[in-house]
From TrEMBL, chain A:
<keyword id="KW-0143">Chaperone</keyword>
<comment type="function">
    <text>Binds specifically to cytosolic chaperonin (c-CPN) and transfers target proteins to it. Binds to nascent polypeptide chain and promotes folding in an environment in which there are many competing pathways for nonnative proteins.</text>
</comment>
<feature type="coiled-coil region">
    <location>
        <begin position="80"/>
        <end position="114"/>
    </location>
</feature>
<protein>
    <recommendedName>
        <fullName>Prefoldin subunit 4</fullName>
    </recommendedName>
</protein>
<dbReference type="InterPro" id="IPR002777">
    <property type="entry name" value="PFD_beta-like"/>
</dbReference>
<dbReference type="GO" id="GO:0006457">
    <property type="term" value="P:protein folding"/>
</dbReference>
<dbReference type="GO" id="GO:0016272">
    <property type="term" value="C:prefoldin complex"/>
</dbReference>
<dbReference type="InterPro" id="IPR016661">
    <property type="entry name" value="PFDN4"/>
</dbReference>
<comment type="subunit">
    <text>Heterohexamer of two PFD-alpha type and four PFD-beta type subunits.</text>
</comment>
<dbReference type="GO" id="GO:0051082">
    <property type="term" value="F:unfolded protein binding"/>
</dbReference>
<dbReference type="Pfam" id="PF01920">
    <property type="entry name" value="Prefoldin_2"/>
</dbReference>
<dbReference type="GO" id="GO:0005737">
    <property type="term" value="C:cytoplasm"/>
</dbReference>
<feature type="coiled-coil region">
    <location>
        <begin position="24"/>
        <end position="51"/>
    </location>
</feature>
<comment type="similarity">
    <text>Belongs to the prefoldin subunit beta family.</text>
</comment>
<keyword id="KW-0175">Coiled coil</keyword>
Length: 128, 186
């Protein structure tokens, strides 16, 4: 994302402007990280759902459940409750991430307004 | 150098000085535009090198943390089997694609790999404490690292903006000079 202008404008850059620009950069970086984390959380949720479905279909009493690097033989009910626990944890995390994303997007919109307001064409805050 | 904001260096990363006025900045440094731009570009490069290093460290830590959590999970599972008298049966990978079954009897202790070809025996409780401590240290290191990266990226942004402003100032000066050198004929 480019932040520098191409026109030779007279507008002076104050320390406050610089700090706004810095903050925008930080928010943008964090936004990308959060979006990646959201993607992973969604995939994890899907995997857990698939596992849960498989569990319902199987008629075995002992399921091989991965703990660490090995597959331990665990009774079906315990696996069910473990998967439920993991699903809840991932879902909560997903909600938290979505909320963070919303907050970041709002902050970035506010900063854009301020910076475009002062610098107009001299600054570019869009994703290339 | 006209600066403001009072940014101090952070753990070996030099702070980028914020320039209040380009003209004063250049005259204080006694540099022409091209030299100033060259110096700023070099600074930017140095920042990029440090950024690469920090990003690599961050990736390592981010991989280490789930590993430690997995270990904690295993120790907890072994501990939970302790009172029951049951053996833990587990399928493990002998080689890629080849698995074998293991019967793990009541676990008095576990061995923890400490690195540098050293493995030590610990009771389950001690192992949990040690792993927990490692996990907290890793998370704390990651936090510091992330803060370092944020600071670094701020300095990169400041330097990029300074480069743009010096360049623009130069373009502006040339335009003024041209306008003065070629007066319009009335």
């Amino acid at each position: 994302m480019s932040k520098a202008g191409s026109s030779a404008s007279e507008t002076e850059v104050t320390w406050e402007d610089q700090q706004n620009i810095n903050k925008f950069g930080r928010l943008n970086n964090r936004l990308h990280e959060v979006e990646d984390e959201i993607k992973i959380a969604k995939e994890t949720n899907e995997s857990l759902e698939d596992a849960g479905n498989e569990l319902i279909l199987t008629d075995e009493d002992i399921v091989r459940f991965q703990i660490g690097e090995v597959f331990a033989h665990v009774p079906k009910e315990e696996v069910e409750s473990r998967i439920e626990e993991m699903t809840e944890k991932t879902s909560k995390n997903l909600v938290k991430l979505e909320e963070e994303k919303e907050s970041i997007v709002a902050q970035m919109a506010a900063l854009k307004k301020i910076l475009y307001g002062k610098f107009k064409d001299s600054i570019n805050l869009e994703e290339d | 150098m006209s600066t403001s904001g009072g940014l101090t260096d952070r753990r070996g990363i030099p702070a980028a000085a914020f320039v209040e006025d380009v003209q004063i900045y250049l005259s204080q440094l006694n540099l022409d535009v091209n030299s100033a731009l060259a110096i700023l570009q070099e600074r930017l490069q140095q920042y990029r090198v440090v950024e690469m290093k920090l990003l690599a460290q961050q990736r390592d830590l981010q991989a280490k943390i789930p590993d430690i959590e997995k270990c904690l999970d295993v120790v907890a599972t072994l501990q939970s089997k302790k009172g029951t008298g049951e053996d833990l049966i587990a399928d493990f990978e002998v080689s890629e694609g080849i698995y074998s079954r293991a019967r793990i009897e009541e676990a008095e202790s576990v061995c923890l790999w400490l690195g540098a070809n050293v493995m030590l025996d610990y009771s389950c409780e001690e192992a949990t404490v040690l792993l927990q401590k490692n996990l907290e240290n890793a998370k704390a290191s990651l936090e510091v690292l992330v803060a370092d990266l944020q600071f670094l990226r701020d300095q990169v942004t400041i330097t990029q903006v300074t480069i743009a402003r010096v360049y623009n100032w130069d373009v502006h000066q040339r335009r003024l000079q041209q306008a003065a050198a070629t007066p319009s004929e009335s």
